[in-house]
Please model this.
Amino acid sequence: MYLAGLFGSMDKERVLQFILARNRAYATQIAKFYQLNTSQIVKQLESLELDKVVVSFQYGKMRLYEFNPQYYFRDELKALLLKSRKVIKIQEPELYNSLVMVKAAPRRKGKPDFKKPANSKEYNVAEKADQACEKIYTLDEVVDELGLRCVKEANEDV
Model:
């Protein structure tokens, strides 16, 4: 790629280009796209996460990565990557086309999307916590909302 000297490795630039093109991605997806070992990609993703360039979250068994919205130079980094993508378009048109044109089958009916995973305790607790910031709840209401009634009753028995 074209910014390898700046980023320290070609793989790091590839990871960033892929995440920019898809908004979020997981290690195996990136590795398959570039036909690389997953361990190479994981190493770069961990490095980028350590530097707070990307953030990750668990979705089922997958760890998804996306640009850190609070990274100070996020917009400048994206602009630099987009500018280098113009060179990729000229030098490697096949890679460019496969990178920016996503061929994805429609999601199965009823399958949860990434923004709101169904039956995810982690998501539901976070959602309820956000709602709690908007309204002051009593302890009983919070316990009821989060489905922790059995925990409260167990504590009352003690």
